[in-house]
Amino acid sequence: xxxxxxxxxxxxxxxxxxVLILLRFKQLWPYRSVILxxxxxxxxxxxxxxxxxxxxxxxxxxxQCCSLPTISGLPLEEFLFITLAGIFISALTITIKQVLNKxxx
Length: 105
Hints:
This protein is mainly alpha-helical. It is built from three helices and two strands; from the N terminus they run H-H-E-E-H.
């Protein structure tokens, strides 16, 4: 079953992340440990925050939004979002820095 959240993740996180990595693989490979640490940090901060926010009803997810199983009340899509966001944002930041350095910025 395909959910709106999963569709959003594919369009706005999976595809851009794959494209960026394919285009800049050689330049990003030396930074793989930085990207991994970023993902771990994002999960360590993001998951407790999401858990707290969901338990205190700051936000939540309904059944129509998410189709994957939940872990401690958090949909698996949220785990994917935090992971993909960490990969994409760190890879994009590294890429921008490299491009600016080449231009003398």
